[in-house]
Amino acid sequence: MSESITKARHRAARRPSTPLTEFACAASEQMGTVGRRTAVVAASSGLMVSMIAVPSHAADRDAAPALAAVDTAALTASARAVLNTSPVVASPAEAVFTVDAPVVTAEKPPPPPEPVRTTRAASRTAERVATASAEVASNPAPQSVAGNAVLEIAARYVGVPYVSGGSSPDGFDCSGFTSYVYAQLGISLPRTSSAQRNAGTVVSRADAQPGDLVWSPGHIGIYAGDNQMIDSPRPGKTVQFRSIWQSNPTFIRIG
To answer: What global pTM score does this model have?
Structure first.
């Protein structure tokens, strides 16, 4: 009994065929004759085909020839199904993009506030001048003041208020006033009235001259002649010319 052996014939191996490869093959056949480059990208959500024509002799975009059409009828049913379900995005040739920018309005800043102007109280100097004017009007300086260095200096401070312990134009007590006036002439007197009582020579009332000191216990001033004196009397008063009020004062000549 003979045995018949028939050799099997095998089909040559070939690349697997899928909708993607069929679509790429058809697109290549359509584009090959016009020298186009075709890029095919497949994604799980669909299929996108992009064809870019790059003619070597094109001068500008408007002069480039139109792209060749792809015959989708030659595609398999699977490839057409993928194309049909893929989103189609179209844009006009002259697309205009606009951006909504917020409107910025520049407002003029408010003017700076006007500086607060406060009326300053009259200075002590102004008050002294006004007071001195009133004092001079009510108690005019004696004629003996003119030409007498001591009285001319003393008269400058008419209106300065009495200040206990004061010895400057900001305020005088009685002995602070006399010592300050004499100091302007280079004569140094003791600070207290009792010490000034012994700083010079005692003269009689009849021999007293303008510029001598007029002393009484606890107080001292400067004789202005004609039974007048200039002194810093007491708290609430100011330097002024006035009549000698002491019944028996002591007159002291300095120098």
So the answer is: 0.49
